[in-house]
Design brief:
mainly alpha, globular
């Protein structure tokens, strides 16, 4: 059962956020117990600020600054601040100056970079190097 849940989580992690949400709602309706287990294995790019400071530091240590810049294109200042707060000062300044420069980066490239970041986070989590943030649902709202 754990293997099947992990496989389902892999598939859902590869979907766009709106699609992932629809699939999880259907799974919760059909198999609430399985849905809870699968939810604990889910991670989306927008969950980045919810990683622990240590988890983000470990992640950014593994990412090229080009990938970070690409993935953060189009995010708001609060998200960037939260995501970059664990980054080494020198790298962070580099990323911030790149993000400040105008860019005509195609949305598909940004989406691809974000998927790559998620893939790396999930790999680190599978190896037990970092812990995914809790995805428990409280009062019908994702935490």
């Amino acid at each position: 059962a754990d293997e099947a849940r992990a496989r389902i989580a892999d598939i859902i992690n590869g979907l766009e956020p709106a699609e992932a949400d629809d699939v999880m709602k259907a799974l919760e309706a059909a198999r609430p117990h399985d849905a809870k287990a699968v939810r604990s294995l889910l991670f989306s790019f927008l969950d980045l600020p919810r990683l622990s400071q240590r988890g983000r530091a470990l992640l950014f240590d593994k990412l090229s600054s080009d990938l970070v810049v690409l993935a953060l294109r189009g995010t708001d200042a609060e998200f960037r601040e939260s995501a970059l707060s664990a980054m080494a000062a020198r790298s962070r300044r580099l990323v911030e100056s790149e993000l400040a420069a105008p860019s005509a980066t195609p949305p598909a490239e940004i989406a691809k970079a974000r998927k790559e970041v998620v893939k790396i986070v999930l790999g680190l989590a599978q190896r037990g190097e970092l812990e995914l943030p809790s995805n428990e649902i409280h009062d019908g709202m994702a935490a």
